[in-house]
Design goal:
Layout lengths: L3 E5 L10 H6 L2 E5 H4 L3 H4 L4 E5 L4 H14 L4 E5 L7 H6 L4 E3 L5 H12 L4 E2 L1 H13 L10 H11 L4 H8 L3 H15 L4 H10 L9
Parallel strand pairs: 1-2, 1-3, 3-4, 4-5, 5-6
Helix pairs in contact: 8-10, 8-11, 9-10
Length: 209
């Protein structure tokens, strides 16, 4: 069984990952601090694990930096209970998405699949993304434009107008205008109502509400 080298960026001290248990499964973990900016070391990593609790912009920049140095490296993101950034990460080249870390044996199995070129989306994430694609074509969401639907989902996730603007590549004013139209079309009057409405239509992971 070949050894897989897993890079852990800063901020992974409290996520419950056990390096010793992973090493028994053939996955060696190295922290970003130990790399010390040495690009030759980065180029030898098979997979980079990213924590979505860090700033989205910083994470996307990290992905681009690693891809420039080591184009064959794969990426896996720990999203936590929210899937607000799932599609953004996938568009950036991430092929593994988790809401939580499983025990070492299962995690090592997932890591090997991703390194071998397969996609791995945790069941809740895959179901949520599929549901959003279906629901946007059905009542009552058929009355929203594609952009308004995207804004609706991100508002329901709890994202700020500025964050949504960044993710969708539009201005905060456009996001605000979309929010106004959504409220009119869906008869929604508050952020909490957005969350309840989205959850009632299966557009949020249950534990995110």
């Amino acid at each position: 069984m070949s050894v897989i080298r897993l890079l852990l960026p800063s901020g992974f001290a409290e996520i419950g990952l056990n390096p010793l248990e992973l090493e028994k499964e053939g996955v060696v973990t190295i922290t970003a601090a130990s790399v010390n900016g040495d690009s030759t070391n980065v180029a030898t990593f098979d997979l980079v694990l990213i924590n979505d609790e860090s700033a989205l912009r910083d994470n996307l920049a990290l992905i681009e930096q690693v891809k420039a140095i080591a184009p064959l490296s794969k990426f896996m993101v720990l999203l936590g209970p929210s899937c607000a950034h799932a599609l953004i990460y996938m568009q950036a080249g991430v092929t593994g998405l988790l809401t939580s870390l499983p025990e070492a044996v299962k995690l090592a199995e997932i890591i090997r699949k991703i390194v071998q070129g397969q996609y791995y989306l945790e069941q809740d994430i895959a179901q949520l993304l599929a549901m959003r694609q279906i629901k946007k074509q059905l009542d009552p969401f058929v009355y929203l434009s594609s952009r308004e639907f995207d804004v609706f989902c991100l508002l329901a996730e709890g994202c700020s107008l500025q964050t949504i603007a960044l993710q969708l590549g539009i201005s905060s004013k456009t996001v605000s205008n979309c929010q106004t139209q959504i409220k009119l079309k869906l008869a929604i009057d508050s952020r909490e109502t957005f969350r309840k409405f989205a959850n009632g239509h299966g557009l949020l992971i249950d534990n995110s509400v």
